[in-house]
Amino acid sequence: MSIDFNMSSTDEDNLDVGLLITSVEERPLLWDNTLDSYSDRNDKRKRCRDIFCITKPGFEELDLFLLNKIMFSSTTSAMFETPS
Fold this sequence. Notes:
This protein is mainly α. About 50% of the residues lie in helices and about 0% in strands.
């Protein structure tokens, strides 16, 4: 199975933004810095993976190399950084 995760304008149009927002809101670990578990990077990666699986069908079927490339890219990491 081949999936292109490069975001082109057509991919952005197909992204269900409401689903993305709801998915992030349901995972306060990603945005609520008052939680003790907020600094747990491993748990954050799991929650990010959950969101990828929900918003990008077929994500969980990718091989480990490609998953790591997507999950740990600087663009993906920037999505969940705390603003300075």
